[in-house]
């Protein structure tokens, strides 16, 4: 977004001269200077000394100790109070561009700091500008790192951020990290440094273990939220659940379904019993259904529940009577979100029937169950016996906003079910669909076109035809028309992932119609440089572009020079780029960090002309200093 | 009411259709393991480890006709298009590709573990056929600061296990463990301060190691604890009885 770019330019340039409207009248310059003095009572007088207005103050103005507030100062105070209500960072970015005093007021009132790429700005710079932040959201690695396309230890370390935060934000309350490397030491530092710390969310992170969790649990006395989502947590054999202090806890959310080690159940049960505010609890697969029962009885106020294994543990004496699971679910009257079912024994599924009517979210993506078993969960199910699961969903979940369909066996070349039927059914039944992620083996243009016509509210359309380069299996045509219809008909589309056999024509459609697209994922698609050119020249809102195994080369890369500062990142792996082509980009755009990532060892340089992976992103800091040996950063002067 | 649904698609197929769809049974695994899963806690994704996603395919053959296609009204115009062998646009190499399909390895591993667990339970408990999954149990020793883990399937006899434990925990009564099988030394041992290996079995009972045949032990052992001899006295009567029965 252009606004984001300007935002960063502003923070880079502290000596920026006054906007011309202020400079024109001398009296307003004085007011500005005085106002800046009064606002920066907290000590962060970033602009006062470096403002160029200082040099143009007329000497005749007397400097007295007390100065009655100028009208504009009052205005600034009012502004601060008003800006407190702006929560969206996009709105705040816009407000900060109005003039210098708005910039300052906004900087002092921003309480949540969002950094979309941890390498785009340094901790010192970010914290220098925003001094009163209570919550930090940090994102690190690009998404393709999830699929092993990036060697481990690439970077995105939390350490420099947490150490800066201990100095800058003693009152920090919330940290949310995505795809960052977090160490146990980082967690220990965090736990001990922020007395009022309340919320920790680690999404797709790694590098830490149960000992790190133990620090958080034991030292963060005000902890309300501890959410571990799809993170890798190593088993240090530390009983972190027991680390929560005795006495009533203010825990509201405890999510640990990704933790792949056993936990101390007795301690968990006691913790749940003394957490009256607990609303979200997502258990890992080491919690059996019997244990789940005991927890549910103690926490009937739960709104979000991850059920753990949902099967009995192996240790069950003969003749033990089974708890009344239906009763347990019935007592949890507030449940709206149900997930887990990690090792589901289908016999127990009926237990959830009492809550189905109220559910807004039901996640069976880890469960091995059949449509037959799922049927009674949907109230109004047509009674035909050979109904596909998706058709069942389509028939009953009229209000569905988001759907994700994962493959059990994530491999191509399996002749799976005819998937366009499911997509067609969904498009006809779930007209309000806004977001869909759909894995399939093959697809038809007709089904995709139908979805584009039936679901005009789509904002996220991610179709993954697992067979690479697969055409429409009915007509034999490329999938161009299907995706073309999506971008043409779904006017709110912001995120798109394409697959299957695609020619440059598909990309011309995206460039022509995808005016709101911010995130685009491309794999095994396109014919020539033109494909990428269409997108780079046609999509003004494009921020995140990730491409793999597509025939786009240096000329295509070059066609995006006008736009790369507006983007968060560009990823291109196994395309047709050369180091020379990438070097040209680096030379032309000094504020881009251009990383070339190699897979093999340094000696294995058979293909010196090929770039394996290009990852480039705008940054105020230049090349990072934690580069591993398999990454080369191309310098502007190289 | 806004509904968010996440469904595991392949398994949503009805029972009847299962044979047609899940034609090939797959186990997801890291290369070099022959398709087996070793899910230790916190196994890190190894970039270089996941290059080859070639999987074990079972002998079930894929059916030509997809039963589901007979149900729906879409007409296949050209059956040849279904066969990937004649698909002109498809690259000839069927080599698996890194990171494709884009499913997070975390999710793949979860589902794979589920599948292998299901298969194990389907094969029935007490079945001594060699499943290739490991049998990790925790080993604690009184007085030692750290827990260890051993894979019982790595050993074939009690002796091998004792040797391994001895190495693991140093020379703390490994001799005593070896004397263990000998009744006359047993009481000496238990009266002394040497260490005695015990285990928790499926029923939650703590037993002295060595009571049952090795295979049965591997199946039923949940965890190991190396106790001080004096503490293990309570377990002795059963052991004594067993020793008598054996001799």
UniProtKB/TrEMBL annotation, chain A:
SMART domains: LRR_CC
Ranges where the COI1 F-box domain occurs: 72-111
Transport inhibitor response domain span: 132-177
Transmembrane segments: none
Record field: compositional bias (Low complexity): 19-28, 36-55
Region (Disordered): 1-55
Protein name: Transport inhibitor response 1-like protein
Lineage: Eukaryota, Viridiplantae, Streptophyta, Embryophyta, Tracheophyta
From TrEMBL, chain B:
Family named by the database record: Belongs to the Aux/IAA family.
Region (Disordered): 58-77
Signal peptide, first to last residue: none
Major place of residence: nucleus
Compartments, record wording: Nucleus
Domain (PB1): residue spans on this chain: 134-229
Bias kind Basic and acidic residues: ranges: 61-77
Name this polypeptide is given: Auxin-responsive protein
Quaternary structure and interacting proteins, as annotated: Homodimers and heterodimers.
Function: Aux/IAA proteins are short-lived transcriptional factors that function as repressors of early auxin response genes at low auxin concentrations.
InterPro entries with a match to the protein in the record: AUX/IAA_dom (IPR033389), AUX_IAA (IPR003311), PB1-like (IPR053793)
Keywords of this entry: Auxin signaling pathway, Nucleus, Repressor, Transcription, Transcription regulation
């Amino acid at each position: 977004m252009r606004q984001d770019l300007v935002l960063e330019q502003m923070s880079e340039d502290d000596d920026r001269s006054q906007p011309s409207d202020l400079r024109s009248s001398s009296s307003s310059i004085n007011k500005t200077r005085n106002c800046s003095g009064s606002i920066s009572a907290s000590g962060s007088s970033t602009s006062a000394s470096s403002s160029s207005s200082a040099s143009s103050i007329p000497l005749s103005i007397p400097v007295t100790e007390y100065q009655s507030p100028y009208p504009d100062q009052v205005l600034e105070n009012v502004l601060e109070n008003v800006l407190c209500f702006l929560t969206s960072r996009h709105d705040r970015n816009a407000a900060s561009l109005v003039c210098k005093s708005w910039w300052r007021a906004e900087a002092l009132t921003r309480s949540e700091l969002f950094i979309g790429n941890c390498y785009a700005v340094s901790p010192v710079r970010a914290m220098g500008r925003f001094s009163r932040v209570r919550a930090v959201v940090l994102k690190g690695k690009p998404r393709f790192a999830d699929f092993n396309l990036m060697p481990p230890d690439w970077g995105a370390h939390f350490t420099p951020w947490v150490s800066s935060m201990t100095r800058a934000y003693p009152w920090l309350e919330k940290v949310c990290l995505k795809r960052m490397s977090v160490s146990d030491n980082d967690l220990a530092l965090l736990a001990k440094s922020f007395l009022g710390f309340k919320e920790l969310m680690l999404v797709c992170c790694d590098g830490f273990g149960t000992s790190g969790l133990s620090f958080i649990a034991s030292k963060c006395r005000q902890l309300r939220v501890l959410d571990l989502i799809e993170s890798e947590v190593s088993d240090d054999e530390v009983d972190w659940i027991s680390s929560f202090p005795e006495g009533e806890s203010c825990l509201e959310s405890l999510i640990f379904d990704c933790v792949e080690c056993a936990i101390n159940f007795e301690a968990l049960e006691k913790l749940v019993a003394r957490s009256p505010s607990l609303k979200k609890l997502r258990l890992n697969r080491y919690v059996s259904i019997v244990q789940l029962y005991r927890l549910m009885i103690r926490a009937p106020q739960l709104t979000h529940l991850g059920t753990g294994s949902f099967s009995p543990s192996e240790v069950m004496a003969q003749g033990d009577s089974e708890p009344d699971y239906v009763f347990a679910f019935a007592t949890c009257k507030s449940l709206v979100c149900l997930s887990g079912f990690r090792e589901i024994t289908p016999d127990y599924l009926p237990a959830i029937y009492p809550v189905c009517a109220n559910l807004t979210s039901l996640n069976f993506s880890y469960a091995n169950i059949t449509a037959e078993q799922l049927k009674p969960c949907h109230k109004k199910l047509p009674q035909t016996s050979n109904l596909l699961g998706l058709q069942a969903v389509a028939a009953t979940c009229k209000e569905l906003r988001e759907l994700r369909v994962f493959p059990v066996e994530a491999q191509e070349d399996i002749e799976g079910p005819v998937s366009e039927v499911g997509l067609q059914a969904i498009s006809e039944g779930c007209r309000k669909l806004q977001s869909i992620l759909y894995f399939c083996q093959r697809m038809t243009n007709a089904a995709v076109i139908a979805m584009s016509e039936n679901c005009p509210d789509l904002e996220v359309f991610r179709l993954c035809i697992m067979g690479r380069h697969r055409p429409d299996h009915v007509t034999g045509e490329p999938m161009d028309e299907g995706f073309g219809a999506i971008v043409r008909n779904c006017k709110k589309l912001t995120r798109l992932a394409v697959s299957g056999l695609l020619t440059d024509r598909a990309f011309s459609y995206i460039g022509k119609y995808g005016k709101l697209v911010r995130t685009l994922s491309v794999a095994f698609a396109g014919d020539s440089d033109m494909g990428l050119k269409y997108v780079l020249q046609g999509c003004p809102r494009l921020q995140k572009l990730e491409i793999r195994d597509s025939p786009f080369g240096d000329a295509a890369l070059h066609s995006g020079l006008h736009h790369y500062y507006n983007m968060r990142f560009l990823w291109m792996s196994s395309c047709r780029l050369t180091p020379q082509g990438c070097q040209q980009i680096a030379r032309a755009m000094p504020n881009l960090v251009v990383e070339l990532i190699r897979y093999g060892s340094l000696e294995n340089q058979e293909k010196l002309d090929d770039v394996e992976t290009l990852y480039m992103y705008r940054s105020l800091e230049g090349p990072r200093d934690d580069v591993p040996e398999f990454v080369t950063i191309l310098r502007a002067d190289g | 009411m806004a509904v968010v649904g996440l469904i595991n698609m392949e398994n949503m197929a009805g029972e009847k259709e299962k044979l047609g769809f899940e034609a090939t049974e797959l186990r997801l695994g890291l290369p070099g393991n022959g398709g087996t899963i070793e899910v230790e806690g916190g196994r890190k994704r190894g970039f270089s480890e996941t290059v080859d996603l070639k999987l074990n395919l079972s002998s079930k053959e894929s059916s030509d006709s997809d039963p589901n296609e007979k149900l729906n009204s879409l007409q296949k115009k050209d059956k040849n298009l279904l066969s990937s062998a004649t698909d002109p646009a498809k690259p000839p190499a069927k080599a698996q590709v890194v990171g494709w399909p884009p499913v997070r390895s975390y999710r793949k591993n979860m589902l794979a573990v589920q599948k292998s667990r299901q298969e194990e339970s389907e094969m029935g408990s007490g079945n001594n056929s060699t499943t290739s999954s490991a049998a990790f149990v925790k080993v604690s020793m009184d007085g030692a600061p750290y827990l260890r883990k051993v894979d019982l399937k790595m050993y074939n006899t009690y002796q091998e296990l004792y040797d391994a434990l001895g190495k693991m925990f140093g020379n703390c009564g490994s001799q005593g463990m070896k004397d263990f099988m000998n009744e006359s030394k047993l009481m000496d041992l238990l009266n002394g301060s040497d260490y005695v290996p015990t285990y928790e079995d499926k029923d939650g009972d703590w037993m002295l190691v060595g009571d049952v045949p090795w295979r049965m032990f591997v199946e039923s052992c949940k965890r190991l604890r190396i106790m001080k001899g004096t503490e293990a006295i309570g377990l002795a009567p059963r052991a004594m009885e067993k020793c008598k029965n054996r001799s």
